[in-house]
Amino acid sequence: MADSKLLVPELSDAESMGDETVRFQELLLQASKELQQAQTDRPESTQIQPQPGFCIKTNSSEGKVFINVCHSPSIPPPVDVTEDELLQMLQEDQAGFRIPMSLGEPHAELDAKGQGCTAYDVAVNSNFYLRMQNSDFLRELVVTIAREGLEDKYGLQLNPEWRMLKYRPFLGSISQQNIRSRQRPRIQELGTLQGPERPHLNLWLEAPDLLLAEIDLPRLDGAQGLTLEIGESHLVMGGSQQLYHLNASIPLRINPEASRAAFHHRRKQLMVSMPLLSVS
């Protein structure tokens, strides 16, 4: 679905562009400048105190591991989709659904038998946590994502088998965590480029290193036939039905290999997640 190949070379002469394309470039550049200024003026991180939720027990080659699943209103919620829509996304092997999550540092603790173990604190949005309490499916999904996130961050190999502690909502103590400040541009909706087949594009910065896009496709019922190509500063979407075509230059450095997209059937939108490359 995502590809680093560009359909057309980037135009270098502004006079060869149409007025609408030039205006779109200017809007994106203005938003980029505002974001960079916001990141300079505001602190990069905020300290939060997660609240306890539930605790699971698993193990690694080094011994017992406990994961305290916590929550905080300071963590942004995921996109609001139904479980059926989410299940369809997962079955299609698409990563359009992302659960913002804060992964804490490991801390040494003692289990109920007085034996040494390691505990990790993982925090999600408080409202999403309440929803997760009533859904075994979401609980399983959060635990799986948390386990994989801890494995990637700390080089662990955790046993996928786990059990939830019945009478203990957390093990040890839950420490404060530093999370990235949520910074959104004041220009969140960048407008529609006029044209019979040009869809509405909405861009915003979900985190300092993650750009999200929503492309409105009201005449489509699914992603069949859509093509999406993403370069470091370019996004091109088309389709065999020739109902829509979008060619957008983006003044932020995108990581094409890590970008993902998924079609939201109820909203009739293509949701695109584009991690950003660090500025050298």
List the helices and strands and how they pair.
Layout: H1 19-41, E1 45-48, E2 51-60, E3 63-72, H2 83-91, E4 102-103, E5 107-110, E6 116-125, H3 126-133, H4 136-154, E7 163-164, E8 177-180, E9 201-207, E10 210-216, E11 226-231, E12 234-239, E13 246-249, E14 260-264, E15 269-275
Parallel strand pairs: 3-6
Antiparallel strand pairs: 1-8, 2-3, 2-7, 4-6, 5-6, 9-10, 10-15, 11-12, 12-13, 14-15
Tell me about this structure.
- By secondary structure, the chain is α+β, with helices and mostly antiparallel strands.
- It contains four helices and 15 strands.
- The protein has two domains: 45-180, no CATH class; 201-275, Sandwich (Immunoglobulin-like), CATH 2.60.40.790.
- It has helices spanning 19-41, 83-91, 126-133, 136-154, and strands at residues 45-48, 51-60, 63-72, 102-103, 107-110, 116-125, 163-164, 177-180, 201-207, 210-216, 226-231, 234-239, 246-249, 260-264, 269-275.
- The strands form four sheets. Strands 2, 3, 4, 5, 6 and 7 form a six-stranded mixed beta sheet that branches. The chain has a four-stranded antiparallel beta sheet with strand order 9-10-15-14, with no helix packed on it.
- A hairpin with a 2-residue loop joins strand 11 (226-231) and strand 12 (234-239).
- The longest helix is centred in the first third of the chain and has 23 residues, at 19-41.
- It is elongated.
